[in-house]
């Protein structure tokens, strides 16, 4: 009885999560999205056969359910663009003026893939090798210790409908701007240090923190042009600070500094913020921002804001480990985009549970029977609890039927 009540609460909360996202979808599409999310969470996989195995009823054949899912994923009568916009609209209350929004590109590597549509070459982030696969545009909202997926969109430069990598990034930033207005601080790594992206950020009046490669030419207040690395070498406004290195469990000394600058062809005031770690294992980090920096405290806040960009790495790791983001077998690029979007929604739902219904999320965690000493990383334990709940439901046809029908 307790598990049936828990399942009923889970079904109701999933309904509330999906309602704003599916408000413009027809009934068959709503049912398909709901079933697929349940199948992804129950199986921890993006393989259609594994998803079908979790949601098919005994009155139907497994292969029929799998074919039905494939037809829905490939159907020409729906697009995920509207659902993506509604998803951003539904999470917009979470985005405060100072919310960190990491934006990045990740790879969906398919080293043995040959027949996937529009395969391109990508750099595998795990091995460093160049493999066939797809690039994937990703964005998250970091609120406290939670990382909410905002956008996860595979693309291929081999696709005739893809205008180019930079234009894909600019389009994504425009849609985020439309959804969140001037709220949020966008953070980028060195791969985004390009003129087109910087100009777009300034044109759209987006607040940002961007890590520089070092060869970016900047203009000082005396109209002196210099590379960022040269400005850093000559920077006199440096102050010693201590920072806690979690990986080494100790405090380390680092120097921080800042300098007012601007781009050679832009009038907007910008700031170069640097962090220098001395020693053989140290290095220099240079950040460009349009946030106002008038003190060492401001500079340190910029550094801490950029450090939260690493939450994007945690987000994509969760997707790859818990829902098998790279494990899809469907070959159509449009179907891949839809499946990846649904995987992102599945994780976003778990994040919303921890944000808005923590006590319920803890009940699901306990159902998964985690180790006593397991602390942190609640989403990994939460996915196991949800998987256990849905597995129990799958053994009862009446329960799974009521779950699928909402």
Please count the beta strands (DSSP E, at least 2 residues each): 12
How many independent structural domains? 2
Fraction of helical residues: 40-55%
How far apart are the termini? 18 Å
Shape field: globular
Largest sheet: 10 strands, mixed
Order of helices and strands: HHHHHEEEEHEHEEEHEEEEHHHHHH
Radius of gyration: 23 Å
Short description:
This protein has helices at 2-18, 27-43, 48-55, 62-74, 80-91, 165-180, 195-203, 228-234, 296-307, 311-322, 333-356, 358-367, 378-394, 397-404; strands spanning 100-109, 120-123, 130-143, 146-155, 185-188, 208-211, 217-219, 225-227, 238-245, 250-261, 270-277, 283-289. The chain is α+β, with helices and mostly antiparallel strands and 406 residues long.
Task: Describe, in plain words, how this protein is organized in 3D.
This protein is α+β, with helices and mostly antiparallel strands and 406 residues long. It has 2 domains: 2-78 and 357-404, no CATH class; 83-313, Alpha-Beta Complex (Transposase Inhibitor Protein From Tn5, Chain A, domain 1). It has helices at 2-18, 27-43, 48-55, 62-74, 80-91, 165-180, 195-203, 228-234, 296-307, 311-322, 333-356, 358-367, 378-394, 397-404, and strands at 100-109, 120-123, 130-143, 146-155, 185-188, 208-211, 217-219, 225-227, 238-245, 250-261, 270-277, 283-289. Strands 1, 2, 3, 4, 5, 6, 9, 10, 11 and 12 form a 10-stranded mixed beta sheet that branches. A two-stranded antiparallel ribbon has the order 7-8. The two termini are 18 Å apart.
């Amino acid at each position: 009885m307790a598990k049936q009540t828990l399942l009923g609460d889970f079904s109701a909360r999933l309904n509330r999560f999906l309602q704003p996202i599916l408000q413009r979808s027809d009934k068959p599409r709503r049912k398909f999205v709901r079933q697929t999310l349940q199948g992804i969470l129950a199986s921890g996989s993006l393989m259609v056969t594994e998803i079908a195995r979790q949601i098919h009823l005994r009155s139907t054949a497994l292969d029929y359910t799998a074919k039905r899912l494939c037809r829905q994923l490939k159907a020409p009568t729906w697009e995920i663009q509207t659902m993506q916009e509604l998803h951003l609209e539904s999470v917009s209350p979470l985005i405060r003026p100072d919310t960190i929004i990491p934006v990045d590109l990740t790879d969906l590597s398919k080293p043995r893939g040959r027949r996937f549509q529009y395969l391109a070459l990508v750099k595998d982030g795990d091995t460093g090798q160049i493999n066939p696969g797809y690039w994937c545009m990703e964005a998250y909202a970091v609120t406290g210790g939670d990382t909410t997926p905002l956008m996860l969109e595979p693309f291929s430069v081999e696709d005739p409908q893809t205008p180019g990598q930079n234009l894909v990034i600019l389009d994504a930033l425009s849609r985020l701007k439309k959804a969140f207005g001037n709220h949020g601080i966008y953070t980028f790594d060195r791969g985004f240090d390009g003129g087109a992206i910087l100009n777009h950020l300034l044109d759209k009046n987006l607040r940002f923190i961007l890590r520089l490669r070092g060869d970016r030419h900047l203009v000082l207040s005396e109209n002196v042009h210099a590379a960022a690395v040269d400005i850093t070498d000559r920077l006199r406004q440096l102050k010693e600070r201590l920072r806690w290195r979690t990986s080494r469990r100790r405090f380390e000394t680092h120097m921080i500094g800042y300098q007012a600058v601007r781009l050679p062809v832009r009038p907007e005031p910008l700031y170069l913020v640097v962090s220098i770690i001395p020693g053989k294992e140290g290095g220099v980090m240079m950040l460009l921002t349009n946030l106002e920096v008038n003190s060492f405290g401001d500079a340190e806040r910029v550094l801490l804001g950029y450090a939260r960009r690493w939450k994007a790495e945690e987000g994509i790791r969760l997707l790859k480990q818990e829902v098998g983001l790279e494990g899809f077998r469907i070959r159509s690029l449009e179907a891949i985009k839809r499946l990846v979007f649904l995987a992102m929604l599945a994780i976003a739902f778990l994040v919303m549970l921890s944000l808005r219904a923590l006590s319920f999320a803890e009940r699901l965690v306990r159902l998964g029977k985690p180790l006593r000493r397991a602390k942190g990383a609640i989403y990994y334990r939460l996915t196991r609890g949800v998987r256990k709940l849905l597995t129990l439901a799958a053994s009862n046809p009446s329960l799974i039927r009521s779950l699928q029908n909402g």
